């Protein structure tokens, strides 16, 4: 896999972690007391991990390579599958779910509790984000990277928003050269009205 260009992205996140952890405690405290957490201000180039830049980089390394993915769609228990070629249109459609929850814009600084930790069992470093305000679209994000190479191994995101009178939640996962997984749960008055699971597998 040609993913060397991801190294600077992960290192930037690691450097930013130390600074942001200092602010996360006070931000969380204000959130639990009912006050709005402050946005981080000042002239700074530091931001949260950029999902958009990451997927740009991923496509740069895959554009032109002959990939055929196994598409699996499961809606309320009913399952269908098909083989589809990975082209720019499909890549754009899949990454759009993740791009919509990108928090790399400076306006999001201070609105997420950040933590970085290592998992010795899986030999991965994790960048973990959790929303501290109830109305934020992205609720949670976890990025795992190899402890040795610093290459991203997986991205997991959870989102939530009100749409047409329903609560729509998403669970998104991307593992390079392995899988795109998108689960969409629609609920009304606490009852699930539609459960859709989309999977695009690189290996099958």
Distance between the terminal alpha carbons, to the nearest Å? 18 Å
Beta-strand content estimate? 35-45%
Largest sheet, in brief, is: 9 strands, antiparallel
The low-confidence runs, each spanning 5 or more residues with pLDDT under 50, are 1-33, 37-44
Structural class: alpha+beta
Total number of helices:
3
Instruction: Write down the secondary-structure element order.
Output: HHEEHEEEEEEE
Overall geometry: globular
The helical percent reads 10-25%
Give the strand line-up of the largest sheet.
2-1-9-8-7-6-5-4-3
The counted number of beta strands is: 9
**Average pLDDT over all residues:** 82
Radius of gyration: 18 Å
Describe the overall structure.
25% of the residues lie in helices and 41% in strands. The protein has three helices and nine strands. It has helices at 7-32, 51-62, 88-99; strands at residues 68-75, 78-85, 112-119, 124-131, 138-146, 152-163, 166-175, 179-188, 191-201. It is an alpha+beta fold and 204 residues long. The protein is globular. Helix 2 (51-62) packs antiparallel against helix 3. A hairpin with a 4-residue loop joins strand 3 (112-119) and strand 4. A nine-stranded antiparallel β-sheet has the order 2-1-9-8-7-6-5-4-3.
Throw out a few tags for this protein.
globular; 3 helices
Entry summary:
By secondary structure, this protein is α+β, with helices and mostly antiparallel strands. The protein has helices spanning 7-32, 51-62, 88-99, and strands spanning 68-75, 78-85, 112-119, 124-131, 138-146, 152-163, 166-175, 179-188, 191-201. Helices cover 25% and strands 41% of the residues.
